[in-house]
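A further point concerns the way the authors explain their paired sequence and structure data. Showing the layout once, in full, would remove most of the difficulty. For illustration, here is how one protein appears when written out as sequence plus structure tokens:
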Amino acid sequence: MNTGFIGIGSMGGMLVHGLLGRGALAPESVWAANRSQAKLDMLAAEFQGIHRVGARELAAQCDLIFLCLSAADTADVLARMDPELSSGQMLLTTAGNISLKALEDRVPCRVARLIPSITQEIGAGIALLMYGSRVTAEDSTRLENLLGSISRVVVIPETVARPAIGLTSGGPAMLAYVLQSLAEEAIRNNSELSPELARKLVLETAGATTRLVSEANMTTEEIIRRVALPGGMTALAIETLSRFVPQAWRSVFRETSERANKACESVVL
């Protein structure tokens, strides 16, 4: 199966490197197109055998095509690919604001939306998949097996895309911000605490906490109950957080959902 990647920037480059690096794809079966020729040359030097082509030639050669482009760039690239696209191909977009219906209305291919995460750089984390109406059982099995080499694949309906994207693709950045702000406030509270030590303490603790969940099968509720003992300082901290954190998350999900809906409405393929 020839597999094409159009756009090898942040997410596209991560997918190509992950799938090739773990042997899920052979370089000879990979076709890559990108606005910057320099990036293509670097990729070809790292994985000898990759085909460096334009979008139209890629569409003529590939059964499975990853469109790792913004919605704004997708329309122009699809126009160049049009003469070569057919119902026998599968086309995936990684753009968060292109609906499956809009893509199905635009191309004859079977279509899907893929929302990867930066965590796939280490072969971990969730990759979200949403399928269009023309996708077959064989398509889904093949695609999930492929992406399963670098992630845990979770198939979701498009109706829950926005909050799910926030929890997975956006999650690493939001969690990193929470950890960063926790360390920064601890430093502000006591100037004798060095930034290096504060960050080390936070990151080591965060990593160990996730291991409690994944390896010791503890729930988050159990961790809170066992650490935040009544009358203790941690219980006071949790009580304080409970007055502010839920409201902050409500604002996060409401405002991102509103913006995403507007962005989807404005997309023209």
